[in-house]
Amino acid sequence: MPNADPLLPRPTLLSPSHLARALDALRSSAASSAEVWQLLTQSYTVDLDAVAALMPAEEPEPVWLDARR
């Protein structure tokens, strides 16, 4: 992710309700959660911990080990 330009003013989203609305709007245009993060941080100044609490956790696919014989 490129560094954000500190001289470019961006709206600040700190309220959980505002963050939730922005996430809902971005999810429809993004193909993955990584794109949602990128679009969100390029467009807004956000509390990343608050965003992480609102986004569903992605669990890795389990890798099943071959049974020992």
In short:
This protein has 69 residues and is mostly helical.
Describe the fold and architecture.
It is a single chain. Helices cover 43% and strands 6% of the residues. It is built from 3 helices and 2 strands. A two-stranded parallel ribbon has the order 1-2. α1 crosses α2. The longest helix is centred in the first third of the chain and has 12 residues, at 16-27. The termini are far apart.
Overall 3D shape: elongated
**How much strand content do the residues show?**
5-15%
Q: What would the average pLDDT be, to the nearest integer?
A: 81
Tally of DSSP helical segments: 3
The span between the termini is: 46 Å
Q: Strands of the biggest beta sheet: in what spatial order?
A: 1-2
The helix content, as a percent range, equals 40-55%
Q: Could you spell the SSE succession in H and E letters?
A: EHHEH
Question: What is the count of β-strands?
Answer: 2
Tell me the radius of gyration.
16 Å
pLDDT < 50 runs, ≥5 residues: none
Given the helix and strand composition, which structural class is it?
A: mainly alpha
**Main sheet, how many strands, which sense, barrel?**
2 strands, parallel
Label this structure with key terms.
mainly alpha; 3 helices; elongated
List the helices and strands and how they pair.
Elements: E1 12-13, H1 16-27, H2 33-43, E2 45-46, H3 48-54
Helix pairs in contact: 1-2
